[in-house]
Structure formats: structure tokens, C-alpha cells
Amino acid sequence: MNMKKKLNKKIVQMIQIPIIVVILFFALRELYNIFVDIDVNLFNMYSDKLTVTNIMIIIVLGIISYLPLSFYDLIIKKKVQINLSTREVYKYSWIASSISNLVGFGGSSAIFLKNHFYKKYVDDSSKLIKETSKVVGLNLSGFSLVCLIYSLWSLVNGRSFDYVFFISALIGLYIPIIFIGATYKVFKNRNKENYYITLKIMFTSILEWATTILLIYGLIVILGIKVTLSQFFPIYVMAIIVAMISMVPSGVGTFDLTLLVGLKEFNVPSEQVLLLIILYRLSYYIIPVLIGLVLYLSDLYMKINEDAREVISRLNSKLAHCVLKIMLFITGISLIFGNNIYLKRYFPHRNEILNMDIVELSISLSIIIGFILIVLSTILHTKTKEVYYFMVFVFAVITMGGFFSKYNIHECIFIGLVWILILFSRKMFYRIGFIYTWKNAIKDIAIILLTLSVYLISSYSKVVHYIHRKIPILNLEEIVKNFYKDNLVSSVFIGATIALLLVMLLILLNRLNKFPKEELDKEKVKKIIENYGGSRLIHYVFLGDKYIYINKNEDVLFQYQISGDKIIVLGNPVGNKENFFDGIQEFLEFADLYGYTLVFSGVDVEVMGELHDLGYEFMKLGQDAWVELDKFSLVGNKNKSNRQAIGRITKAGYEFSIVSPPYNDELFSEIKEVSEEWLNGQKEKGFCVGFLDRDYIEMDKVAIVRNSEGELKGFATIMPMYDGETLSVDLMRFKKIELNGIMDYMFANIFEYAKENGFKYFNLGLAPLADVGRTKHAFFREKIAYQIFVYGNFVYSFKGLKKFKEKYATRWEDRYIAYKKGSSVIITVIQLMLVLTKEKDDFCK
What we know:
Blueprint: H1 2-36, H2 40-48, H3 52-66, H4 72-80, H5 86-103, H6 108-118, H7 125-138, H8 140-156, H9 163-172, H10 174-189, H11 192-222, H12 229-246, H13 254-264, H14 270-303, H15 306-337, H16 341-346, H17 363-378, H18 385-401, H19 409-424, H20 438-470, H21 476-485, H22 487-508, H23 522-532, E1 547-550, E2 556-563, E3 566-570, E4 574-575, H24 580-593, E5 597-603, H25 605-613, E6 616-628, H26 640-651, E7 655-659, H27 665-679, H28 694-697, E8 702-706, E9 712-720, E10 726-734, H29 742-756, E11 761-768, H30 780-791, H31 801-805, E12 811-820, H32 825-836
Parallel strand pairs: 3-5, 10-11
Antiparallel strand pairs: 1-2, 2-3, 2-4, 5-12, 6-11, 6-12, 7-8, 8-9, 9-10
């Protein structure tokens, strides 16, 4: 028996599908023949008359007319025992109904979709299918009542009894038969629950069809079509009947053709009817489906894991943010160039994208807002809440203008899309501060001036060219005079000036960035170093020329300076290595809140893995030279020149010694005298090199060299590495002496001192740009960076530094600059150089 039913069903489908295809083909062919004669300009004229208020009313009418379709599942929820909240049932009902309403197939699509959504939440799937099938069957009751009213109205008004009347009369009998049958059953079976459910479904169906008629006739009124309800009603009934007979999904083609032909009998232009059909399809089918799609995607989104949701959310926000920047720029250009009255007067067929008039409140105001939007589009990258609120305000002004002017439908759609993008991109505007760099300022000023120039040139030259060709030369002077006399040019200059002032204001607002800078707290720093050890660069923190950042757990420490929108972190973080990743991420997110990007200078492989996972790329900075002290020796031919140099210094009566703090005033004065002679009038630097500061040098021992007369000729400040195995020096300065080899003498004695005191290694420091960008196969960015470093050289020369260190180094370790992916390497290197070349007095204290 089941096999027979399935076979009959397949046969019906085999017959039904070709019939639908043939009907659809002829309907679409007729529509095509009508559309060929459509006047596009006339159609645009009708569509341009739609205001923002009209569009809003149409959208509301469309949603109201669709709402009853999504009520059916709420009616059967209790009987079928769908184990979902009312909110969830309504959501799935909307999704299923919106799709089935569009694709049609006689309700089978609705049954399939609702079974798909609810089957996991019901105990009896067969009961679910039975009740949803009942809803599909009773759905005709609303149209049956419409047909019954039409039939009675035709009888009363003595209309001709055509085929529409007989079909509508036949359909009209459906609702009384169903009502009588349901009433009879309730008296017979005393099952009031089924009776009330049936009545509710019938009432919902009536409401559905009534609101659909309200929608279409509302569109007729809004479009100004001169057709009364009594004239429209028969056409509508006929169109629905034809669509039902054709069995084409949503009556596409058949409904439209019938409506088009019927309204043409009342001398309604085809262009107006076409616009009516488009608006009906959009408001009743497309908008509900789009809402349903959003609901479905949000449902899928909530069912996936949290990490995937975060990725999708960030992707959506980022995409919306990127598109929004483009849309704002286009809007700004449209407001400026779209109000060029001379272009409008002489060149009416320009591109539609430049035809977006703001409100017509004032051409001047629209041009000014246009320039502001151009600047706004360029500062969206700051992602601050203030920029977001300002953007919302500006677009609110533009949108409000639509209620007082005649925005056309294209402009309404455009503004609607921008509002959607504003809504979806709101999560991207999370920052509480931003840095507006000179790079951004120069770029924005160039865009403003270019826009101004193009506007003035195009406005003047095109009009003059047109006049020369079309208008007698005698009128040229008058036209040009009017061009400058009009407020248009002054408005453009005012708009550009305001935009430039806005750029200047943004630069000044940098000072209001309230990024919390924590200055040196020696006790906190020493505590972390004592608990977890230090690093080769952490001793520089005690110079006091850098800020520090300590994570919330107070076990990871960073030292940094600020350059533009970059926070330049010196070296690896120090502290609990297990928390390095979390600590870096915490600092990264904290800095990002205020518009800063972290750049790490002089990091090694120990933290490259963590930085890579946080989106960093690397550029080689140079190499650190290490001396393995157990291998240090002056014996052998290789060290002959070193032995000779050291021998000359020793024979001359020079003596080496290590002195410990505190230092008396006399010794410090001697050290200061040596330092000043070595500097030769130049200012000291800071950040990654030490400078002469009494508190700083008294933190550890100082190696000194005196001549035979006891005069201090050189000194080196001992710098601990805080690992118990490694020693280094920071400041090493000498007076001018005739003998060569004083530096070798100093290093050799310090090496011996380190060995004697149990140290295994000596860090000779960084040889900047060692083997960086020197070969033709090196990264191009490293080649450029190399040149910046070379020509941006300061007091401490890089030349010969590696060559000297090679005399003693037994191991080399690479050091890197870590910069955020997407950052300009050139700008980053320049900002780093600005920090490196800054004088010590310019640093924080």
C-alpha cells in the first residue's frame, strides 16, 4: 500500500513539474515583452519619489503582513508538546515560514522545515507532521473568506459571472464547510481543544490574508496609483487564483503578470506597477527571509563552541569595519561632488553614485559634512568609542535629513546599509584612547587637498569646456562670474578648512591620551629579579629613563619607552617564564586599549615562540657577543696583538682595580671628568645604553684604570646579568692617551676578575646590524633598515664594533626586533631610531 502511494506521488510530481515549468516560461515571456517597453527614466522617477518615511512604512507593513505566518507554531506548541520556550518556537517558526513562503511547493516545504527544527524536541514526530499538515490545510481558510466576500460583493454589485467569480465562489465555500465540520465534531466528540485550535488557525489565516491585502493596497497608496480598493480587489483575487492554479513557487511571474495586466486596464503605467511588484516582493518575501537567515545563522552561532564564536564575531566585526570605512568615504565624496550645481546643470547624466543630495537643507552643510566624513573614514582605524559615537551622530544627522527631504530609494538603501555596518562593527570600537600620528595627519591632509583640487578643477574646467562648445563666447564671462559668486566655492573651502582643523585637533588630542605610565619602582623591580632572575638588559631599568609595566600577578616585568603610536619594549620580559605568554598578552591588550602597539627591541629566541603566537614578525637587529671565560686566554699566535697591546699598557705603569660602592665625591668627580672628555661636548643617550648617573653607577662595582701618576684614565661600570653566571659592563670610557690597547687592557683584566669570582660567561653586548641585510638574498626590509641604522647613526658608532668583539667572542647569539604583523617596518624602525637617538634629558624621570 505504501509502495503504491509513493509511486502515485512520484507520478504526480513528474506531471506537476513540467506543467509548472511551461506555465512559468509563458508567464516570464509575457513579462519580458512588457518589460522591454519599460521606460527606465520613468521608473527611476517613480522610485525617486519614495522618501525615507515611505520606505520605513513599507518595511513595517511588510513585517506586519508577515507576522501572522509565524504564529501557527505557537498555536500547536502545547498540543504537539514541543519542548522549547515560546521564544525559541517563534524563532524557528519565523525561519521555516519565511523560507517556505518564498519557495512555495504547496506547504510541503513548511512541513519539511518544521519537522527538521522540532523533531528533536517532540516525543511523537508523526503527531508533529499531522498537526503541521493540518495548519497547511487550514491556511487556505483566510483566502477562502476573501473569495467569499468577493463573490458576495460581485452578486450585490451585479458584476459579470466570469471564471474568476465561479472559482472564487468555489474557494469561498471552503471556510464555511470547515467551520461547520469543526463545530459538528465538537458537539459530537466534545473535544473542545481541537476545536479551539482549529478556530485559532483559521483566525490567524484570515489575519494573514487581511494584512497581505493591507500591504499591497498600502503600497498602491504610497506610490500614488489612482486605483480604488473596489477596483483593486478583483484584480488581487484574480492574481492569487492564477498563481494557485499555476502552482509556481510564490506565484512568481503568474501573480505579477496578472497584477500588471489588471492594473493597466485602469491606465496605471507599467513602470508604477513594476515598482509596486518589486516593493511587494521585497517587503513580503525578501526582508522576512533575510531576517530568518540572520536568526538561523545566530542559532548556528550559539551552537558552536566559544572559540569558534569568537573567531566568527571578530571576523564579522572586522569585515563590517573595513566596508564601513569605504562606505563613509564614498558618502563623503558623494555629498561633496553630488552637490556641484554646475555639474548638475550642464552634466545631468553623471554617475548615480555622485547623486546623493543630503536633505537639501543646505548645499553648504552637505559639503561640510562630506569633508568631515572623509576625515572620519580615515580615523576609523583608531577604533575608539568616541569616534564611533561621533560617526553615529553624523549619520543620524544625515538620516534625519531624509525625513525633511526626498531621498530616493537608492539613497535609502545606501544609508540603510551603512547603519547595518555601523551596528555590526560596533565591537571594533572598544578603545578608550588613540594616537593620531603625523603619518596619518599627512595622509589625511593630502586626501583633503586632493579632493578640494579635483572639485574646483572639475567644476570650473568642465563648465568652461561645455560653454565653449555650446554657448556663445559672450556668455563665458557671466558664467565664470557666477561660478565664483555662488556660495558653492566658499562652501567647499569652508568644508576643507574645517576638515584640516579637525586633523590639527586630532593631533592635539594625542596629549589627552591617558595611558597609565608607571615610573620606576625599584623595590618592585628588585623583588621580581630576586624571585625569578633577570636578563642581559634588565639592569638598564635602573637608569630611570624608561617606564615599567608589571602584570596583574606581579611576576612579569617590562621596561619601555613610547615613540608615536609604538611602545618600544627593551629586551625580553623578566620574571616568571611560565607566565611570559599571558604577561605579554596582557600588556598587548592593555596598550591596545589606548591605541598603542608593542614593539620588542633586542629579543632572543627565548620569547620568539610566544611573540609569534601573538601575531608578531621578526627582523634581525644584530648579534650579541659572548665570551666563554673558561676558554679565554691570551696564549697563542691568534692573541699575539692583544698580548702586545696589554703589555705596552702594563709597562707604562698603568694599574687596573675594581672599586665597590659607595663612591666618595673625589672618585665620582674623576669618573665624571673622564666621561665628559670622552663625550667631547655631545649629549648622552639612554634607553638601551647607560649614562653617567651617580645613583645608577653606585648599583654595582666600577673597574678603573690609573696611570703611573695615579690619574684616572678610564673606567667601566660592571653590569650584572642577574643569573649568577654572567657578567657584563655598561659604560666604558677613557681619556685620550698616546698608547694603544687601553680597551684590551681593561677587558682582559675584567675577564680575569670575572673568572676569579666564579662567573662562566661575559656578555660583550650587541653588535648592531651584524650580518643584517648585507647579502643580495636578505629581506628587502632588512636592507632598508640597515641603511636607516647606518645613516641614523649617533654617538656610539657601529663601525668596527663587531670587529673588536670578534677578538674575544667565542659565541654569537642573534637578536631581533619583533613588530606586529601588518605594521610598516620602515616606520617602526624610524620610531625605534627616534628613541635610540633621544637625549637622556628628554626621557622620563
